[in-house]
Amino acid sequence: MLCEKCGKNDAKVNLITVMNGQKHEVWLCENCVKDIANIPFLNSMAQNINFPLQGMLTEMLSNTESNKSSIDNNKIKEIVCSSCGLTYNEFKRSGKLGCSDCYKDFKVVLEPRIKSLQAGVKHVGKIPKVKGRELVQKRRLKDLKEEMQKLIIDEEYERAAIVRDEIKKLELYILERNNAANVLQSVKEENCNE
User: Fold this and answer.
1) Of all helices (H) and strands (E), which one includes residue 54?
2) Is the pLDDT of residue 5 over 70?
3) Number of folded domains in the chain?
Protein backbone atom coordinates (compact mmCIF):
# COMPACT_ATOMS: atom_id res chain seq x y z
CA MET A 1 0.00 0.00 0.00
CA LEU A 2 1.31 3.44 -0.90
CA CYS A 3 1.45 6.40 1.45
CA GLU A 4 -1.76 8.43 1.26
CA LYS A 5 0.11 11.71 1.68
CA CYS A 6 3.00 11.49 -0.79
CA GLY A 7 1.80 8.57 -2.93
CA LYS A 8 5.40 7.42 -3.47
CA ASN A 9 6.66 5.27 -0.58
CA ASP A 10 5.27 2.14 1.08
CA ALA A 11 2.90 3.01 3.91
CA LYS A 12 4.13 1.53 7.18
CA VAL A 13 2.09 3.46 9.74
CA ASN A 14 -1.68 3.28 10.05
CA LEU A 15 -3.13 6.17 12.06
CA ILE A 16 -6.72 5.73 13.22
CA THR A 17 -8.66 8.23 15.31
CA VAL A 18 -12.26 8.27 16.40
CA MET A 19 -13.56 11.72 17.21
CA ASN A 20 -17.22 12.55 17.81
CA GLY A 21 -18.17 9.07 16.60
CA GLN A 22 -16.38 9.46 13.27
CA LYS A 23 -13.50 7.18 12.37
CA HIS A 24 -10.59 8.69 10.44
CA GLU A 25 -7.86 6.47 9.03
CA VAL A 26 -4.72 7.25 7.09
CA TRP A 27 -1.74 5.17 5.93
CA LEU A 28 1.62 6.96 5.87
CA CYS A 29 5.23 6.24 5.02
CA GLU A 30 7.94 6.88 7.60
CA ASN A 31 8.95 10.20 6.00
CA CYS A 32 5.42 11.60 5.99
CA VAL A 33 4.81 10.51 9.57
CA LYS A 34 7.74 12.66 10.60
CA ASP A 35 5.97 15.63 9.00
CA ILE A 36 2.34 15.24 10.01
CA ALA A 37 1.55 18.96 10.01
CA ASN A 38 -0.54 18.76 6.80
CA ILE A 39 -2.86 15.92 7.80
CA PRO A 40 -6.23 17.64 8.50
CA PHE A 41 -7.78 15.33 11.08
CA LEU A 42 -4.51 15.08 13.01
CA ASN A 43 -4.23 18.86 13.09
CA SER A 44 -7.71 19.22 14.57
CA MET A 45 -6.97 16.44 17.07
CA ALA A 46 -3.68 18.02 18.11
CA GLN A 47 -5.39 21.38 18.64
CA ASN A 48 -8.13 19.84 20.81
CA ILE A 49 -5.68 18.07 23.07
CA ASN A 50 -2.24 19.11 24.18
CA PHE A 51 -0.48 15.93 23.13
CA PRO A 52 2.90 15.67 21.41
CA LEU A 53 1.73 13.40 18.59
CA GLN A 54 4.71 14.25 16.38
CA GLY A 55 7.17 13.20 19.09
CA MET A 56 5.25 10.04 19.88
CA LEU A 57 5.20 8.89 16.25
CA THR A 58 8.88 9.67 15.73
CA GLU A 59 9.73 7.73 18.88
CA MET A 60 7.63 4.74 17.75
CA LEU A 61 9.35 4.66 14.39
CA SER A 62 12.83 4.95 15.86
CA ASN A 63 12.03 2.14 18.30
CA THR A 64 10.77 -0.17 15.58
CA GLU A 65 13.72 0.61 13.32
CA SER A 66 16.25 -0.08 16.08
CA ASN A 67 14.48 -3.33 16.93
CA LYS A 68 14.49 -4.38 13.28
CA SER A 69 18.24 -4.03 13.05
CA SER A 70 18.74 -6.42 15.98
CA ILE A 71 16.71 -9.13 14.23
CA ASP A 72 17.97 -10.83 11.09
CA ASN A 73 15.87 -9.32 8.28
CA ASN A 74 16.16 -12.47 6.15
CA LYS A 75 14.62 -14.57 8.92
CA ILE A 76 11.80 -12.08 9.32
CA LYS A 77 10.97 -12.15 5.60
CA GLU A 78 10.75 -15.96 5.75
CA ILE A 79 8.11 -16.01 8.52
CA VAL A 80 4.90 -17.73 7.47
CA CYS A 81 1.93 -18.50 9.73
CA SER A 82 1.66 -22.21 10.37
CA SER A 83 -2.16 -22.13 10.30
CA CYS A 84 -3.35 -19.62 7.70
CA GLY A 85 -0.18 -19.32 5.59
CA LEU A 86 0.08 -15.52 5.91
CA THR A 87 3.56 -14.36 4.90
CA TYR A 88 5.50 -11.52 6.49
CA ASN A 89 5.26 -9.46 3.30
CA GLU A 90 1.45 -9.85 3.24
CA PHE A 91 1.28 -8.83 6.90
CA LYS A 92 3.56 -5.85 6.25
CA ARG A 93 1.47 -4.74 3.28
CA SER A 94 -1.95 -5.09 4.92
CA GLY A 95 -1.02 -4.48 8.55
CA LYS A 96 -3.47 -7.22 9.54
CA LEU A 97 -2.94 -10.73 10.84
CA GLY A 98 -4.83 -13.69 9.41
CA CYS A 99 -5.61 -15.79 12.50
CA SER A 100 -4.86 -16.23 16.19
CA ASP A 101 -1.79 -18.36 15.46
CA CYS A 102 -0.21 -15.44 13.58
CA TYR A 103 0.47 -13.82 16.96
CA LYS A 104 2.70 -16.75 17.91
CA ASP A 105 4.40 -17.10 14.54
CA PHE A 106 5.02 -13.34 14.12
CA LYS A 107 5.98 -12.84 17.78
CA VAL A 108 9.55 -11.79 16.93
CA VAL A 109 8.15 -8.91 14.84
CA LEU A 110 5.07 -8.01 16.90
CA GLU A 111 6.48 -8.02 20.43
CA PRO A 112 8.99 -5.17 19.95
CA ARG A 113 6.33 -3.07 18.19
CA ILE A 114 3.74 -3.71 20.89
CA LYS A 115 6.27 -2.92 23.62
CA SER A 116 7.04 0.40 21.94
CA LEU A 117 3.35 1.31 21.84
CA GLN A 118 2.23 0.32 25.32
CA ALA A 119 3.43 -0.72 28.75
CA GLY A 120 3.65 -4.46 28.10
CA VAL A 121 2.68 -7.31 25.84
CA LYS A 122 0.06 -8.85 28.13
CA HIS A 123 -3.51 -7.59 27.74
CA VAL A 124 -4.89 -6.57 31.11
CA GLY A 125 -8.12 -4.90 30.09
CA LYS A 126 -10.35 -2.64 32.12
CA ILE A 127 -11.28 -3.53 35.66
CA PRO A 128 -14.84 -2.91 36.88
CA LYS A 129 -15.21 -0.60 39.88
CA VAL A 130 -17.50 -2.92 41.85
CA LYS A 131 -15.46 -6.13 41.77
CA GLY A 132 -12.17 -4.56 40.70
CA ARG A 133 -10.18 -5.12 43.88
CA GLU A 134 -11.16 -8.79 43.96
CA LEU A 135 -10.16 -9.31 40.32
CA VAL A 136 -6.80 -7.59 40.87
CA GLN A 137 -6.09 -9.79 43.88
CA LYS A 138 -7.04 -12.99 42.03
CA ARG A 139 -4.87 -12.00 39.09
CA ARG A 140 -1.99 -11.20 41.46
CA LEU A 141 -2.46 -14.59 43.16
CA LYS A 142 -2.34 -16.38 39.80
CA ASP A 143 0.81 -14.48 38.79
CA LEU A 144 2.49 -15.28 42.12
CA LYS A 145 1.74 -18.99 41.72
CA GLU A 146 3.21 -18.98 38.21
CA GLU A 147 6.27 -17.11 39.47
CA MET A 148 6.75 -19.63 42.29
CA GLN A 149 6.59 -22.54 39.82
CA LYS A 150 9.26 -20.90 37.65
CA LEU A 151 11.47 -20.28 40.69
CA ILE A 152 11.15 -23.92 41.76
CA ILE A 153 12.07 -25.10 38.26
CA ASP A 154 15.08 -22.75 38.33
CA GLU A 155 15.94 -24.13 41.80
CA GLU A 156 15.76 -20.71 43.43
CA TYR A 157 14.22 -22.04 46.62
CA GLU A 158 14.82 -19.00 48.85
CA ARG A 159 12.95 -16.68 46.50
CA ALA A 160 10.29 -19.35 45.99
CA ALA A 161 9.76 -19.46 49.78
CA ILE A 162 9.28 -15.67 49.86
CA VAL A 163 6.74 -15.89 47.04
CA ARG A 164 5.02 -18.80 48.83
CA ASP A 165 4.63 -16.63 51.93
CA GLU A 166 3.15 -13.83 49.81
CA ILE A 167 0.71 -16.33 48.30
CA LYS A 168 -0.38 -17.48 51.78
CA LYS A 169 -0.94 -13.89 52.94
CA LEU A 170 -2.94 -13.04 49.84
CA GLU A 171 -5.03 -16.23 50.05
CA LEU A 172 -5.77 -15.51 53.71
CA TYR A 173 -6.76 -11.93 52.88
CA ILE A 174 -9.07 -13.09 50.07
CA LEU A 175 -10.61 -15.76 52.33
CA GLU A 176 -11.24 -13.25 55.15
CA ARG A 177 -12.71 -10.78 52.70
CA ASN A 178 -15.04 -13.44 51.25
CA ASN A 179 -16.12 -14.50 54.75
CA ALA A 180 -16.88 -10.88 55.67
CA ALA A 181 -18.88 -10.47 52.46
CA ASN A 182 -20.84 -13.66 53.23
CA VAL A 183 -21.64 -12.40 56.74
CA LEU A 184 -22.85 -9.08 55.33
CA GLN A 185 -24.97 -10.90 52.75
CA SER A 186 -26.61 -13.10 55.39
CA VAL A 187 -27.33 -10.04 57.60
CA LYS A 188 -28.95 -8.29 54.62
CA GLU A 189 -31.06 -11.37 53.89
CA GLU A 190 -32.20 -11.57 57.56
CA ASN A 191 -33.16 -7.90 57.50
CA CYS A 192 -35.17 -8.38 54.31
CA ASN A 193 -37.00 -11.39 55.76
CA GLU A 194 -38.12 -9.52 58.89
Assistant:
1) helix 53-70
2) yes
3) 3
